[in-house]
């Protein structure tokens, strides 16, 4: 007991910086990092650029959030549908559904999104969708079409896991409806950690995809033709000429260290956008990893 | 377990179905591709270089000639001229129609233009795939071994030494801090979208070559780290299973010291398998490997996504996906579809390969062969 | 001694076949080329192979000429073995012990071993020391266990004479059901070698025994409609059911209403994240919807004093024996007319065994038809009269 109390403050010192709950630690780091960057912008970035940054960040997060919500709805729906079809009598329908889902899985996400965006662009041009908010939501929905299968997979994997044990059978023969078993007993009581982890990783994946597609589309601006003007996200901010110039300076700074300080003051817009994007991606990855580690998923 | 024939047929079938759908859409596009008849006519008349539609003389000549040749009334000829005028203005103001004359459609020539680009894309992809899988496996094994040997991260070790030795240790162990910082930068690069890295390096390197693309394809977009992470999770999950404990109790080697004869040699990280004979990691590895292949299948589409992003974002003329982006911008949807189908085919073939590989490995453990 | 030492053995079939009888050699040959998967070979078959290998290792350790005696730990070695295989295991174990091949720590909940040791190896009794692991307020403790307590209790068990209700049986299963390329049938009742229907009336407690790996659990799952057989015919409550009957029928009409089953692994069958109360409240019967109702149900197998705390406990924090009791209570609470119990005494200590047996007897008296599947023949053969005992055989 004595040695324990003596060691206690020390252990606290290390665990204060690096506690075992890495998911929590990285959530704090992420939010803290964003706040610091924001304060830095407040001090050193001109106001219009900062305001654009804020909108871009909000749009990106909103879009990615939409992706998560819509991907979970679709993932859950398709998992339930597949489950309903998984009976000897509906074998053909089941095979057809899995076949279609597998087909969708094989389309590289970015290609699927590009095709979707062309459709969206037509809608925006046709003025059927004027509100920027709606456009962001629609972009999120499109992205979720190419990532929702990850959610389907997790749900199916959880159900399969419990099916292989006596768990499902034992509840079934007690007269508990299958729907209750799957949703309450398996998903709600036994899979929340899995689903949260999936949500975080889908969120990260969504940010990456949304930024990339916006970057790609915005790069098209350099060739006189553009798809349309979507609301700004981190990706399109990054693609703007100023930001690209800023990022090019990193390369120069590698060989001329004298340029280094200018990165943090003069070239703040591009560097800031790039940093926020990458930092967010890293943090989300760490959070999802922390969850895996803590819950042994 | 599925038979090999079943696997091959399923994939070819889905490629076939998609090919049919694509062909159907192409036919539809072809039918609707032509402009409305009047505009189409106007467009054709505009292609005649010798006529200057701004000159009154030429206009009068055109009207007469049209009436003579087509046998139409003057009013009809005027309406054609009106259409030509509208078209001219539109082509001048609407950027989309600016290169209206060069608007490409799917022909044997345009397809032949795409083919070498496609081959180059596929070749880069195959190299990226092979390098990524090997690198991810090695990285995952390395991280697993490090975790098993209970080694802390550099930052943790630094904090611990500061805790023990105070200020003096804080200075003498600064190397660890540098180590941690470099690791942090490496992780940031691994997660960066490729365009950030590419633009950052553009002033220093020639970024428009295949080698650079391969490097970007492997080390950015988070491709390498997610795959290696997946594998390392599989290794972790396997290492917690009962047979590992049983193996330890029965005396399998279990030292995870790197580079020691009793532990794990560096070479075995690169090429695990026979080198690990008698070590408990061999069983863990073999069981995790079988599960890695389906994961690889899931990652194939994402790896292609990474490459597509690189090609589109770097704006390199003559690359497949850049061409695709151009076609999208000019609304040449038939060509877009053709390229998209080609890329889909690449993913499907990867999946087929992964399934066959899985079949070959799994065959040993199923009892009905 | 390293893993792989056995690879050098001259006759691997002899090593893994230690616990297989003369007449079982055909079964052994059939599984030798098989890679172990979840279902094949069966649990008992895998266990016998492992024990054979363990014995061989004891042999190797002894012949390596080391002076010090080794310690060998067996953790629930007979968990899925039938009585013959278990007897062979004990014979082998004592054989190795007598040749001075080490100290043996055997961890088990199979009390019936005590009887076998007394009957067949009386000379060994002085070498065996029985200890019981207990969990109480102060944590784990190890106490002496007097084998005589158990033996006396066993001798005291008298078969309850089942009153033979006339009329048609509640459940009747025809011999000759086919699954996985095997054809299964029932012999009985009693020691009769004749093929017959498996018949259970209301108020009957029927014991179905079989050799390990014969497919007891599979038959139970076929009856309850969880597993589809290639061929089977049964009559339940006046309805004829077979392999073509729609699985929906069991789901809609039977499960939880007219029949239910207790699975042998309580760990898998219960939701470890639920509390004890929630595990009962999920049942589609009124008695479990109120707190008093649930307490009443729990009180039949748990001590009164601990009930309120127990009810709020998470299932994952229960001991193995507590989980098994909860597993049984869940089925008892449903009050179906027919009940299948698969290894109901798994993981239970001596005291709980007597309570569970009383509870089962009460269910029977209330008029439930019960099919009991177990390899614990010592207890159930004493408890259940031969006219209610059947043997499952492969035809």
Q: What features would you describe in this structure?
A:
The complex is a heterotrimer of chains A (297), B (369) and C (395). Chain A is mostly helical. Chain A folds into 2 domains: 16-45 and 240-297; 59-229, MetI-like fold. In chain A, 82% of the residues lie in helices and 0% in strands. In chain A, helix 2 (22-44) runs antiparallel to helix 13 (268-295), helix 5 packs antiparallel against helix 6 and helix 6 runs antiparallel to helix 9. Chain B has 369 residues and is mainly α. Chain B folds into 2 domains: 36-102, no CATH class; 110-151 and 185-368, MetI-like fold (Orthogonal Bundle). Chain B has helices at 4-33, 37-46, 56-70, 74-93, 95-98, 108-148, 154-172, 174-191, 194-201, 210-219, 223-239, 242-249, 266-270, 280-314, 320-329, 333-362. In chain B, helix 6 packs across helix 10 (210-219) and helix 11 (223-239) runs antiparallel to helix 14. The N and C termini of chain B lie close together (10 Å). Chain C has helices at 12-16, 25-31, 43-63, 83-98, 112-120, 147-156, 216-224, 247-254, 266-269, 276-281, 291-299, 307-312, 320-334, 350-365, 377-383; strands at 71-75, 103-107, 131-136, 139-144, 171-173, 177-179, 182-187, 195-196, 198-200, 205-210, 233-236, 239-242, 259-262, 338-342, 369-373, 389-394. In chain C, the strands form 4 sheets. In chain C, strands 6, 7, 8, 10, 13, 14, 15 and 16 form an 8-stranded mixed β-sheet that branches. A 4-stranded antiparallel β-sheet of chain C has the order 9-5-11-12, with no helix packed on it. A two-stranded parallel ribbon of chain C has the order 1-2.
Core attributes:
heterotrimer; B: mainly alpha; C: 395 residues; alpha/beta; eight-stranded mixed beta sheet; four-stranded antiparallel beta sheet; 18% strand
Terminal Cα separation of chain A, in Å? 34 Å
Task: Return the average pLDDT of chain A rounded to an integer.
Answer: 83
* Main interface by residue count: A-B, 54 and 59 residues
How much strand content do the residues of chain C show? 15-25%
Number of strands of chain C: 16
Supply the CATH class of the largest domain in chain A.
Mainly Alpha
Q: Biggest β-sheet of chain A: count, sense, barrel?
A: none
Poorly predicted sequence stretches spanning 5 or more consecutive residues of chain A? 1-12, 221-227
Shape by Cα distribution of chain C: globular
């Amino acid at each position: 007991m004595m040695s324990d109390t003596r060691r206690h403050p020390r252990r606290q010192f290390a665990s204060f910086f690096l506690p075992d709950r890495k998911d929590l630690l990285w959530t704090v780091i992420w939010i803290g990092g964003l706040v610091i960057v924001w304060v830095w912008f407040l001090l050193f970035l001109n106001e219009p650029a900062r305001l654009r940054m804020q909108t871009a960040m909000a749009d990106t997060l909103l879009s990615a959030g939409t992706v998560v919500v819509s991907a979970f709805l679709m993932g859950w729906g398709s998992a339930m549908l597949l489950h309903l079809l998984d009976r000897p009598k509906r074998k053909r329908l089941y095979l057809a559904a899995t076949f279609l889902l597998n087909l969708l899985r094989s389309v590289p996400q970015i290609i699927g999104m590009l095709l979707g965006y062309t459709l969206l662009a037509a809608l925006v041009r046709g003025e059927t969708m004027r509100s920027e908010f709606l456009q962001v939501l629609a972009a999120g929905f499109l992205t979720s079409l190419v990532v929702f299968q990850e959610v389907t997979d997790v749900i199916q994997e959880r159900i399969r896991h419990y099916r292989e044990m006596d768990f499902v059978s034992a509840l079934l023969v007690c007269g508990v409806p299958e729907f209750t078993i799957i949703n309450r007993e398996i998903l709600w009581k036994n899979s929340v950690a899995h689903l949260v982890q999936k949500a975080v990783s889908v969120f990260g994946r969504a940010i990456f995809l949304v930024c990339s597609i916006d970057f790609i589309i915005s790069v098209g601006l350099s060739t006189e033709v553009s798809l349309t003007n979507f609301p700004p996200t981190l990706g399109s901010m990054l693609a703007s000429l100023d930001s690209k110039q800023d990022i090019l300076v990193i390369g120069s700074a590698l060989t001329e260290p004298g340029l280094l300080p200018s990165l943090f003051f003069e070239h703040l817009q591009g560097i800031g956008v790039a940093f926020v994007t990458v930092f967010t991606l890293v943090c989300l990855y760490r959070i999802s990893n922390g969850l895996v580690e803590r819950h042994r998923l | 377990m599925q038979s090999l024939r079943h696997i091959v047929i399923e994939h070819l079938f889905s490629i076939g179905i998609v090919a049919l759908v694509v062909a159907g859409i192409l036919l539809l596009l072809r039918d609707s591709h032509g402009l409305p008849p009047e505009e189409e006519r106007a467009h054709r008349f505009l292609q005649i270089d010798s006529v200057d539609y701004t000159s009154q003389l030429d206009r009068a000549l055109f009207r007469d000639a049209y009436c003579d040749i087509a046998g139409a009334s003057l009013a009809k000829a005027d309406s054609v001229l009106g259409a030509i005028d509208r078209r001219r203005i539109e082509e001048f103001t609407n950027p989309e129609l600016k290169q209206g004359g060069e608007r490409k459609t799917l022909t044997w020539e345009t397809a032949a233009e795409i083919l070498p680009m496609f081959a180059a894309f596929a070749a880069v992809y195959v190299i990226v795939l092979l390098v990524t899988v090997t690198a991810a496996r090695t990285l995952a094994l390395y991280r697993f071994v490090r975790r098993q040997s209970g080694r802390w991260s550099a930052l943790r070790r630094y904090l611990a030494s500061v805790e023990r030795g105070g200020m003096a240790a804080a200075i003498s162990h600064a190397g660890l801090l540098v180590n941690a910082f470099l690791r942090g930068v490496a992780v940031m690069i691994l997660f960066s979208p490729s365009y950030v890295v590419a633009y950052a390096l553009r002033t220093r390197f020639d970024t428009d070559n295949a080698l650079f693309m391969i490097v970007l394809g492997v080390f950015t977009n988070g491709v390498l780290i997610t795959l290696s992470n997946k594998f390392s999770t599989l290794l972790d999950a396997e290492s917690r299973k009962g047979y590992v404990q049983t193996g330890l109790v029965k005396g399998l080697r279990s030292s995870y010291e790197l580079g020691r004869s009793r532990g794990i040699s560096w070479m075995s990280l690169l090429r695990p398998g026979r080198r690990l004979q008698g070590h408990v990691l061999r069983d863990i590895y073999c069981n995790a490997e079988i599960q890695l292949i389906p994961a690889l299948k899931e990652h194939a589409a994402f790896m292609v996504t990474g490459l597509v992003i690189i090609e589109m974002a770097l704006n390199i003329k003559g690359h497949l996906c850049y061409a695709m982006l151009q076609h999208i911008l000019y609304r040449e949807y038939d060509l877009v579809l053709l390229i998209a189908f080609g890329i889909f085919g690449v993913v499907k073939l990867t999946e087929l390969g992964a399934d066959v590989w899985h079949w070959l490995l799994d065959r040993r453990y199923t009892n009905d062969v | 001694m390293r893993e792989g030492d056995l690879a050098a053995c001259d006759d691997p079939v002899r090593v893994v076949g230690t616990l297989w009888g003369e007449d079982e050699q055909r079964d052994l040959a059939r599984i030798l080329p098989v890679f172990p998967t979840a279902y094949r070979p069966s649990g008992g078959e895998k266990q016998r192979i492992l024990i054979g290998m363990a014995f061989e290792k004891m042999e190797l350790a002894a012949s390596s000429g080391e002076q010090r005696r080794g310690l060998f730990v067996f953790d629930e070695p007979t968990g899925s073995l039938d009585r013959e295989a278990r007897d062979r295991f004990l014979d082998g174990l004592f054989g190795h012990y007598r040749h001075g091949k080490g100290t043996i720590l055997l961890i088990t909940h199979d009390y019936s071993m005590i009887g076998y040791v007394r009957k067949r190896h009386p000379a060994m009794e002085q070498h065996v020391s029985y200890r019981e692991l207990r969990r109480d307020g102060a944590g784990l403790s190890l106490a002496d266990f007097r084998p005589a307590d158990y033996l006396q209790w066993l001798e005291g068990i008298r078969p309850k004479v089942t009153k033979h209700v006339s009329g048609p049986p509640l459940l009747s299963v025809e011999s000759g059901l086919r699954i996985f390329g095997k054809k299964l049938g029932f012999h009985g009742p009693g020691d009769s070698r004749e093929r017959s229907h498996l018949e259970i009336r209301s108020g009957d407690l029927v014991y179905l025994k079989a050799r390990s790996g014969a497919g007891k659990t599979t038959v139970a799952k076929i009856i309850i409609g969880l597993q589809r057989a290639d061929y089977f015919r049964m009559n339940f409550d006046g309805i004829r059911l077979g392999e073509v009957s729609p699985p929906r029928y069991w789901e809609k009409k039977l499960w939880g209403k007219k029949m239910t089953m207790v699975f042998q692994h309580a760990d898998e069958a219960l939701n470890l994240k639920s509390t004890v109360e929630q595990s009962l409240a999920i049942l589609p019967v009124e008695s479990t919807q109120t707190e008093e109702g649930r307490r009443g149900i729990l009180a039949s197998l748990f001590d009164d004093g601990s009930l309120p705390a127990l009810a709020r406990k998470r299932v994952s924090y229960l001991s193995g024996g507590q989980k098994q009791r909860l597993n049984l209570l869940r089925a008892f609470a449903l009050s179906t007319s027919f009940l299948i119990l698969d290894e109901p005494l798994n993981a239970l200590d001596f005291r709980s065994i007597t309570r569970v047996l009383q509870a089962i007897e009460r269910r029977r008296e209330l008029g439930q038809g019960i099919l009991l599947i177990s390899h614990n023949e010592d207890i159930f053969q004493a408890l259940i009269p031969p006219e209610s005992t059947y043997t499952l055989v492969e035809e």
